[in-house]
Amino acid sequence: MLSEQVLGMRVTQALEGNLPGAAVGGKLDRGELTIDIDPARIVEVCRALKADGYLRLAAVTCVDQYPMEPRFEVIYHLHSISRNERLRLKCRVSGTQPEIDSVIGVWRGADWFEREVFDLFGVHFRNHGNMTRILMPEDWEGHPLRKDFPVHGYKYSYPQE
Amino acid sequence: MAAGTLEHTPTAAAEPSRRRTMTLNMGPQHPSTHGVLRVVLDLDGEVILKAVADIGFLHTGIEKQCETKTWQQVVPLTDRVDYLSNLANNLAYCLAVERLLQLEIPPRAQYLRVMLTELSRIASHLVWLGTHALDIGAMSMFMYCFREREDILKILEMFSGQRMMTSYLRIGGVALDAPRGWEKVVGKFLSEFPSRIDMYENLLTGNPIWTIRTKGVGYMSLEDLLDWGVTGPMIRAAGLKWDIRKDEPYSGYDKFDFEVPTRTESDVFARYQVRIEELRQSHKIAKQALDGMPPGPFQADAPKILLPEREKMKTEMEALICHFKIVTEGFSVPAGEAYACVEAPRGELGYYVVSDGTTKPYRVHMRTPSFANLQILAPMLENTLIADSIAALGSMDFVLGDTDR
What we know:
The complex is a heterodimer.
Chain A: H1 4-7, H2 10-18, E1 23-29, E2 32-37, H3 42-51, E3 56-64, E4 72-80, E5 85-93, E6 99-101, H4 110-121, E7 124-126
Chain B: E1 22-26, E2 38-44, E3 47-54, H1 62-66, H2 74-79, H3 86-101, H4 107-136, H5 139-160, E4 169-170, E5 173-174, H6 182-204, H7 208-214, H8 222-227, H9 233-236, H10 244-247, H11 268-291, H12 310-315, H13 317-329, E6 336-344, E7 347-355, E8 363-367, H14 369-374, H15 377-381, H16 386-396, H17 400-404
Antiparallel strand pairs in B: 1-2, 2-3, 4-5, 6-7, 7-8
């Protein structure tokens, strides 16, 4: 649910007015605004926010909340240069078949960031066009930044010493 | 060379004559890629039809390693990300964690941070200038730039004990107070440096070969740069007056007087001009920090986060307990998330830090400028001459450690 504090922000009001129901939660913590977005509507939300002045996509990343479900939090850091505001969008994605729409149609700069999230977390971005590994070798098994991927060794099945 | 005659022809006009293409593998070991970057080029004669960047050769899983270290132990890892401007990396990480901890940083620590990050920005730009000029064929620039960089590395060594991997910043301040006699050494460097910048400009700015090789090369429009998420000197060379130090001041940058240089041509020469001007502005900031260095503590008053003084450990029980706790298990950081960004020499460097309330970070994401900036390699190189690609690559000023992490 959206708290009073988050609803008081201009960008949340604009988003609610444009796309009611797309924001499913949020918080204002230590001066940083985070809005939880329904993952099915991420592309239209991003398009609306870009029209609203958030011209820059600073980064896309992910947090693995293993073993919680929904497991993955896909994070978008947006920045409006004209308003000098930053905004964080968060989409919670299931761990069984992690998938979300790509925002490459809104910002082309999302390309490598989404490939990186796919490479290191295994979250698949639909309609990306080139969903391949970017940092790890092409034949790598597993996704290293997942919490159940061991730090030592290089396979899931690496025995504990 | 890019243009065979002294009359400069814009590269975009070079049209492919025949459709018989060749694939050229440039890198991963190539002098102009400044690290291990592989670019696969589809060529029609000397014209690049398509360029595909292949990165990841320097991927060392630093973000994964961060999750296994205590909060303070991550600082030396951040040094290894962008190894030419480690202090900017230290600073961005410390700012993010300090926001989670809600720590107040004393003015002396802020000034020391600003002065040394500006000096390391100068060092980073000097490496860029030297190698970029070397790629294009101006050999002697490299020697001059590295001579001045050596002076800065000596200053960093004086402060931290290390020339490159300084790890000088601590969460809550800096590791050590400024060493005895530092004002003289820094002052000597700063008094000499402006004449050195003039010398670089004498060698390059009016040089006809340099202008022919750089003007009109590697053009990208401001809209494209914004769309691709490019930051730093590259976007300022396209006319956007945006600098995080000015627009979202951190670490006390609002107390300093400096300009944000911009150009509108958005080519290799404009990026060169912006960075040269940034050298002057960084010098100006460092000079102000030197002159106005406030007295007082160099670390925040947080006994559970920063190690106590050696003397106190021998006389106070609590100091000894705090020392033991910090060294053995580290300190815990309140649960939450924070994104702090700084203006690194290459652009926006942001650290997104997630804490679950324990003594180790739950997740550290590094939004590195080289990673985002390198994406435009493909659109920038398309339909240009292969000789120009060296100049265009150099003007992007990427560090592969920063790209691959």
